[in-house]
Amino acid sequence: MAKSKIKDLVAQELETFLQENGYELYNVEFVKEAKDWFLRVYIDRAQGAPGGGISTDDCEKVSRFLSARMDELDPIEQNYYLEVSSPGMDRALLKESDYARFAGNIVDVTLYQGMNGKKVITGKLEGLFDGIIVLLDEKNNKIEIPMEKAAKTKLAVIF
């Protein structure tokens, strides 16, 4: 089965279970690393759901459910490892809705090519508007970065 179809199947199989348990699907990856295949599922707490972040118990609960479903359906020919985890503190912003959800947070935007001598720009996320990532720097100056110039946007981890 094609990688994209596996990702779609996993999302479909998890949809109701995640909703019923106060989770949402963040991302699915089906990748080969060296000689091994990995099915990686990232879950998050649904917006408005009670509780804090994702715990190891949450990951185990989803893993047990998905493992049983995948064993039953058996859609993947090769052997693989199933991993369920949270997106982490430094999560990448993948969807347009992520930019709205995390507006007001400090983010790091990694660029394909440097801009004003910088390859990584850090600032307070205002949002994503018409394909433009809008940040405020430490002096509240507006920085606008076209999406196509950004290799990755992720939440900054500040201690």
Describe the structure.
Residues 14-90 form the Ribosome maturation factor RimP N-terminal domain. It is found in: Cytoplasm. One of its GO terms (cellular component) is cytosol. Belongs to the RimP family. The longest helix has 18 residues, at 3-20. The chain has helices spanning 3-20, 56-73, 96-101; strands at residues 23-33, 36-45, 81-85, 106-115, 118-129, 132-136, 142-146, 150-155. It is of the alpha+beta class and 159 residues long. α2 (56-73) links the parallel β2 and β3 (81-85). The chain has a five-stranded antiparallel β-sheet with strand order 7-6-5-4-8. The chain folds into two domains: 3-85, 2-Layer Sandwich (GMP Synthetase, Chain A, domain 3), CATH 3.30.300; 96-155, SH3 type barrels, CATH 2.30.30.180.
Q: What's the CATH class label of the largest domain? A: Alpha Beta
**Estimated radius of gyration:** 18 Å
Instruction: Find the CATH topology of the largest domain.
Output: GMP Synthetase, Chain A, domain 3
Structural class, from helix and strand content? alpha+beta
How do the SSEs run, as a string of H and E?
Answer: HEEHEHEEEEE
Q: How many alpha or pi helices?
A: 3
**Count of the domains:** 2
Helix content: 25-40%
Which parts are unreliable, with pLDDT below 50 for 5 consecutive residues or more?
none
